[in-house]
């Protein structure tokens, strides 16, 4: 048995914050605003997994009103999502993520993002895809106001 999930997230740029994408500290003048580390691609991927599980979204599981998640490492949260999937009898078979960012250039960090998120999900790096694109200077991403990310995940039922 298979299930598919889709996730989307967006965060605005903020001064004085680190830019964390897929668990990688990307050198940049600004980071992303958020209650946790604001790792937009990890958030999209977690939402995809939670959607496939029919468990809502990360806001339900890790509310931004809870001080326990302030500054939280999104890969630690992703491990909790993977554990939830396993407890429900599912595992990630495959995932693919797209990051829309006008700047900075993300290609040099793609493989490390894949490896980081795969490790957090407990799957081989080959099971996680990461792509980056610009919006050709269109919209909030093109105006360099923030970053958006999409993810799709395929879950497969664990053998009993």
TrEMBL record:
Site (Transition state stabilizer): 35, 134
Substrates-to-products reaction catalysed: 4-CDP-2-C-methyl-D-erythritol 2-phosphate = 2-C-methyl-D-erythritol 2,4-cyclic diphosphate + CMP
Binding site for 4-CDP-2-C-methyl-D-erythritol 2-phosphate: 9-11, 35-36, 57-59, 62-66, 133-136, 140, 143
One MF annotation (Gene Ontology) recorded for this entry: 2-C-methyl-D-erythritol 2,4-cyclodiphosphate synthase activity
NCBIfam families: ispF
Cofactor note: Binds 1 divalent metal cation per subunit.
Annotated keywords: Isoprene biosynthesis, Lyase, Metal-binding
Class in the EC hierarchy, top level: lyase
UniProt cross-references to PANTHER family, sorted A to Z: 2-C-METHYL-D-ERYTHRITOL 2,4-CYCLODIPHOSPHATE SYNTHASE, CHLOROPLASTIC (PTHR43181)
2-C-methyl-D-erythritol 2,4-cyclodiphosphate synthase domain span: 2-155
HAMAP family per record: IspF
UniProt xrefs under SUPFAM superfamilies: IpsF-like
Subunit-level organization: Homotrimer.
Cofactor(s) in the UniProt record: a divalent metal cation
Range of residues in the leader sequence: none
Binding site for a divalent metal cation: 9, 11, 43
EC code: 4.6.1.12
Gene it is expressed from: ispF
Name used for this protein in its record: 2-C-methyl-D-erythritol 2,4-cyclodiphosphate synthase
Pathway assigned in UniProt: Isoprenoid biosynthesis; isopentenyl diphosphate biosynthesis via DXP pathway; isopentenyl diphosphate from 1-deoxy-D-xylulose 5-phosphate: step 4/6
PROSITE patterns: ISPF
């Amino acid at each position: 048995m298979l299930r598919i999930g889709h996730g989307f997230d967006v965060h605005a740029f903020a001064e004085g914050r680190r830019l964390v994408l897929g668990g990688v500290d990307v050198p940049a003048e600004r980071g992303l605003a958020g209650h946790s580390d604001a790792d937009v691609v990890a958030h999209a991927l977690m939402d995809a997994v939670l959607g496939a599980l029919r468990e809502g979204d990360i806001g339900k599981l890790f509310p931004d009103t809870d001080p326990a998640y302030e500054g939280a490492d999104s890969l630690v949260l992703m491990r909790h999502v993977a554990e939830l999937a396993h407890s429900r009898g599912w595992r990630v078979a495959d995932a693919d993520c797209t990051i829309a960012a006008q700047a900075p250039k993300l290609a040099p960090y793609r493989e490390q993002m894949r490896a980081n998120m795969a490790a957090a999900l407990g799957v081989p790096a080959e099971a996680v895809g990461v792509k980056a694109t610009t919006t050709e200077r269109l919209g909030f991403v093109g105006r360099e106001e923030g970053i958006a990310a999409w993810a799709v995940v395929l879950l497969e039922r664990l053998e009993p």
